[in-house]
Design goal:
The complex is a heterodimer of chains A (367) and B (174).
Chain A lengths: L1 H28 L15 H10 L11 H18 L4 E3 L2 E2 L6 H22 L3 H32 L4 H7 L37 H4 L3 H15 L11 H4 L9 H26 L15 H4 L7 H26 L7 H30 L1
Antiparallel strand pairs in A: 1-2
Helix pairs in contact in A: 1-2, 1-10, 1-12, 2-10, 3-4, 3-10, 4-5, 5-8, 5-13, 8-10, 8-13, 10-12
Chain B lengths: L2 H22 L3 H21 L3 H30 L10 H21 L8 H10 L4 H9 L3 H22 L6
Amino acid sequence: MLALILCIVFLLLLVIVTAYAERKVAAFIQDRVGPTETGPHGILQSVMDVVKLLQKEDIIPSAADKRLFALAPIVMFAAVLAGFAVIPITPSAIASGAYLGVFYLLAIISLDVIGLLMAGWGSNNKYAVLGAMRSVGQIVSYEIPAGLAVLSVVMICQSLDLQEISFQQGILMNQFAGLEQEVNYLFGLKALNLDVTNVGGITTWNIVRMPFLFIAFIIYFISSLAECNRAPFDIPEAESELVAGFHVEYSGFRFAALFLAEYSMMVLVSLVAVVLFLGSWNTPLPNIGSVQLASWTTGTPGALTGHLWGAFWLLSKTVLLLYTQIWIRWTYPRLRVDQLMHLCWKVFTPIMLALVLLAGLWRLWMI
Amino acid sequence: MSLVLIFFYVFGFLAIASAAFMLATKNVLYAAFGLLVTLLSLAAIFVLLFADFVAITQLMVYVGGVLVLILFGVMLSNQVQGRAVQSESVNGISGALVAGILFGGLAYLILSADYLYLEGINVADAAPVNTKSSIIAIGIRLITNFALPFEVASLILLIALMGAAYISTEDKHE
């Protein structure tokens, strides 16, 4: 129960900050200044936006399917929120230590699609239905390269437990039950015989343990943009064609819930990318001889220092990815539908299939 | 009554109620969303029975795959006519008769089979609690004892995929 409340509060904060960052970064990229009036440098802008949304009239179109229309934002947010349950925040803090965490995440995200269809259909608006259809087609397609990228990590780590995957990517590995005797070699290759178990830092991150996972990371990140309907894959919300896509009829509190669900999804996919590829809550700084940078910036797991350092590294990496998402949105133009499908099916899926095979081979060289 | 048992009955009731709703409602889209609740409750019941892998696979395959396709199909076919597709219930009496006979037969079979004498049932009872997850056992079985059915299933899926691709390809020669 405590984890749920903490998670919701943390999400609200992060979403408000991201919404503000979105406007400010967009402004700087376009050589403007962005919000300046509310608070110093406009930092209260998104708080005020939320307050404004909450006091607006809750409009349900008379021709809409009222039950589906009302239920859709709840389903969407619940689906995304459920995903946060298996994300490890620090070495000893995870809401649900489900052994099948990765698999669960992939499955629960598909509930989001149902919410989207509910919203699109319930609105009884041609733009909303078109937006929902485009969005679902895109999400279902991009789940395949994203799923294969996750699979290649799972094959390297031999685990579906996100906490175990996290422990494998740092100096604390031998403290995890079941991994006491494991050894991390540089690039994962036993033949090199360079033991980096106690060096930690970036040398034990998954993208270094198996260097080709960096390609998988890029593909996962691009696919996750498509799953969040973010630019350059925002054709479901294309303003010039569909007004706003599936949420065109929503206003007031319900729009706020949809907005929250979308931004939470951005946070969730970034968190998953960090946990799977970028060393989770582990520090990027390695131990170099007597300069124990990794040990200094890890703290004691279970104690306050362990919690603070773990959360700090996880969140700073996540925030970096969120910034990249915003940066990409204001840099690249929108893809056409056929280009979108071409990229997914003819470029990403074959590359990922080859990478999954390579990951299997690499695993043989690791032991 | 333990908490697990209470949850079991809650989700069991939800599954049956939503299935009944699915049959009773005239709106095809509502029926599809009724199916969503049924599938979610079934997944919850699988979790309560220590079948975590089956539960998540249920979500993945049925909710993420089948149900989305059903909704897609309903939406696409609905747009053409311009009004909500209605599902009518026909053959009420004969349908109820067949369902009743089937239920009676299955109930008789289940009640007359004595599972407690099954070999390994007492072992199986304690086993899942001691392991982290059922996935390890499932994985090992799939590539040893059940390798052939596993491969045959994947072949059938591949054939279905090729068939679907063939049917949906427009014939360029005509």
